[in-house]
């Protein structure tokens, strides 16, 4: 399914570079327009039928974030493209499909485009029943599909359906929950950690800290050498609170025994 895209960037080199990368490596993307500013982007959004925007952040007069209110209520996904990594968390909280650092890596670009395509395909298959609103669907955040555990993560641009087995861990960030997935993707949801603790399988997931839920599938070890810590396959270390350490150890024994 074609992705009708708009490129928004104030730098000519970046605009052309991204255009040619898309032409060569992402044939499913049809570049419908190119804008040099947020103001130009607004005009093209009104004139074009779009479902994807490659959006630079640091631009004169208005930043890429200033365009986001204009996208509310529209089925337009955003992939941020920027030379500055300090915007990553804000971009993720804005429910962007992805966040690409310049110079753009071809493999990362292809992965971001693939995620956008999968989201369009999901919507085209009417995962939400015709009579349901997205909000109604979001009330039931977990489901069974083809015998596998799935969870639906809703955000301002729609929703993602993911395998719970792909969740490495979830951490709290203020009133948000940050999902860390096995492909290094992050999804930020504006719900507290407690809601997900209640819906996830308690045999496979355990809350080890007030700010962390971990999937036993990715646990490699446990250490109290430098404070209580859970060690993951990817060498990530996560803190374990003292009041939750006994529960974690008991559940770990049961999980790894089975």
Automatic annotation (TrEMBL):
<dbReference type="InterPro" id="IPR011006">
    <property type="entry name" value="CheY-like_superfamily"/>
</dbReference>
<dbReference type="GO" id="GO:0000156">
    <property type="term" value="F:phosphorelay response regulator activity"/>
</dbReference>
<feature type="domain" description="Response regulatory">
    <location>
        <begin position="4"/>
        <end position="117"/>
    </location>
</feature>
<dbReference type="GO" id="GO:0003677">
    <property type="term" value="F:DNA binding"/>
</dbReference>
<dbReference type="InterPro" id="IPR046947">
    <property type="entry name" value="LytR-like"/>
</dbReference>
<feature type="domain" description="HTH LytTR-type">
    <location>
        <begin position="161"/>
        <end position="254"/>
    </location>
</feature>
<dbReference type="InterPro" id="IPR007492">
    <property type="entry name" value="LytTR_DNA-bd_dom"/>
</dbReference>
<keyword id="KW-0597">Phosphoprotein</keyword>
<dbReference type="InterPro" id="IPR001789">
    <property type="entry name" value="Sig_transdc_resp-reg_receiver"/>
</dbReference>
<dbReference type="Pfam" id="PF04397">
    <property type="entry name" value="LytTR"/>
</dbReference>
<protein>
    <submittedName>
        <fullName>Response regulator transcription factor</fullName>
    </submittedName>
</protein>
<dbReference type="Pfam" id="PF00072">
    <property type="entry name" value="Response_reg"/>
</dbReference>
<feature type="modified residue" description="4-aspartylphosphate">
    <location>
        <position position="56"/>
    </location>
</feature>
